[in-house]
Amino acid sequence: MSPKATVWVLGDQLNVRIGALKQASPRTHRILMVESAHKIGGRPWHRQRLHFIISSMRHFADELRNDGFVVEYVKAPTMTEGFGRYMAKHPGTHVTATAPNSLAARALMERLGVETVESNQFLTTPGEFAAWAATRKSLKMEDFYRRQRIRLGYLMDGDQPAGGKWNFDAENRESPPRDGSNPWGEPLCDALDDIDKAVIAELPDNCTGDEPVGWWSTTRTGAFRHLRHFVEHLLPTFGPHEDAMLAGNWHLAHSMLSPYLNNGLLMPADVCDAVQWSYDNGRVPIASAEGFIRQVIGWREYVHGLYWLWMPGYLDKNELGAHRALPTAFTDPASTRMRCVGVCAGDVKQRGWAHHIQRLMVLGNLALIAGVEPRALNDWMWSSFVDGAEWVMVPNVIGMTLHADGGMMATKPYAAGGAYIDRMSDYCSGCTYDRKKRVGDDACPFTTLYWDFLLRHADRFARNPRIVTQVRAAQKLKDADAVRDRAADVLHLLDTGRL
């Protein structure tokens, strides 16, 4: 009897409906999973990120065994050595895998001679996205998103958008409630089981961040529990405050489902179908349903498509010539007097997570206007966020956050001063710095660096219609020299961890 074929399941493809595993059965296939010591110890991963990945893999291996599969879970120094050990034990077996979600993993599969099948983990394949992009003079997420709505049928009334508009973003920018109320309750927190505890005990010494306590489920059952909780209790209020930030509430109405989507425990259709059902049954307003659907079928799929379209060279983009080191405040939140940065970086340290506006308009904004090296920010975010993946971080950091691609992805840099942070959060209350001041020892670093950023890059952005008004305002400042002097002081304090 010929040996069974093998499906190699990677750690971000943990679903029996994905690619090669969808075509397998216990009668005809073995399962290979490899836990690589090199990948685990290769960089200072956040403890909760590493725990989530490894524990989810081990739980999924048990799930497959319960389904009748023979699973060989190999712990090895490298992926290559783990594969070699397996092949030495099962010579002649034919190995297939789902096409990996990174360039490096795809190169590994090709080098090892592993046959790959196209992934269905996303709603749009890289080839489909490239074909769409080839028809456009310029790429805009909104155009892609509308195409997705029509193609997939989410929130549609015939051939028209539900509610009469494609986008309710303008209605979803309310400032946070400032009365101390918490209409969102507390997120689910799962008890750690024996597998979770074993993984935690084995984590390498170079990990960063706080110990896992159960914020991130490591099973598909748990992921669905988090999905149901979001749709039933948080989705109705998601829209209005999706861009808001509160020092005393790290989650608000955000779903926190991205880790499960990124490692396969949830599929995009699982999430979008649940949201569509809730809207159809009158349980959620259109603005909240649309705002969330846009994140999944629009932004997430768009970022994934751009990764495959523009890599590998895209990671090396640095059009603004930014070379500053990562701020100490990002890795040591207690070191900064900037309340907004301390809160957001503290959230990352505690849980390996912060929502999209904290990432873009606080942490990313500071990196942009301070001139932080793009690779430095990319590496830190990839290592520090529980939902981190190369395909996620590279376009978001290089293009959206740092404008390091010169405008390939976003038509303007997302730079802002303290006024924006004050409008969308309660962070400025009680802060050492005054968000209204751009000069002086107590001037808000964001406000100072915002105006200095515009002055530094005036020649480039004076030709950009989306930001030219702000550039001209900067050039008319009577205290421009004082702004530059204060900015130099701010950057020195930032570099020395004393800001």
Give the structure's gist in a few sentences.
This protein is α/β, with parallel strands linked by helices and 499 residues long. The protein has helices at residues 19-22, 37-41, 47-66, 79-89, 103-112, 126-133, 141-152, 194-202, 220-234, 258-263, 268-280, 286-310, 328-331, 339-351, 356-370, 374-384, 390-401, 418-424, 445-456, 458-461, 468-475, 480-495; strands spanning 5-8, 29-36, 70-76, 95-98, 115-117, 156-157, 160-161.
Description:
The protein is of the alpha/beta class and 499 residues long. The protein folds into 3 domains: 113 residues, HUPs (Rossmann fold, 3-Layer(aba) Sandwich), CATH 3.40.50; 153 residues, Serine Threonine Protein Phosphatase 5, Tetratricopeptide repeat (Alpha Horseshoe), CATH 1.25.40; 180 residues, Orthogonal Bundle (DNA Cyclobutane Dipyrimidine Photolyase, subunit A, domain 3). The termini are far apart. It has 22 helices and 7 strands. α7 crosses α12. α1 links the parallel β1 and β2. The strands form 2 sheets. A 5-stranded parallel β-sheet has the order 3-2-1-4-5. The chain has a two-stranded antiparallel sheet with strand order 6-7. The mean pLDDT is 96.
Helices, strands, pairings?
Blueprint: E1 5-8, H1 19-22, E2 29-36, H2 37-41, H3 47-66, E3 70-76, H4 79-89, E4 95-98, H5 103-112, E5 115-117, H6 126-133, H7 141-152, E6 156-157, E7 160-161, H8 194-202, H9 220-234, H10 258-263, H11 268-280, H12 286-310, H13 328-331, H14 339-351, H15 356-370, H16 374-384, H17 390-401, H18 418-424, H19 445-456, H20 458-461, H21 468-475, H22 480-495
Parallel strand pairs: 1-2, 1-4, 2-3, 4-5
Antiparallel strand pairs: 6-7
Helix pairs in contact: 3-8, 7-12, 9-11, 11-12, 12-17, 14-15, 15-19, 16-17, 19-21, 19-22
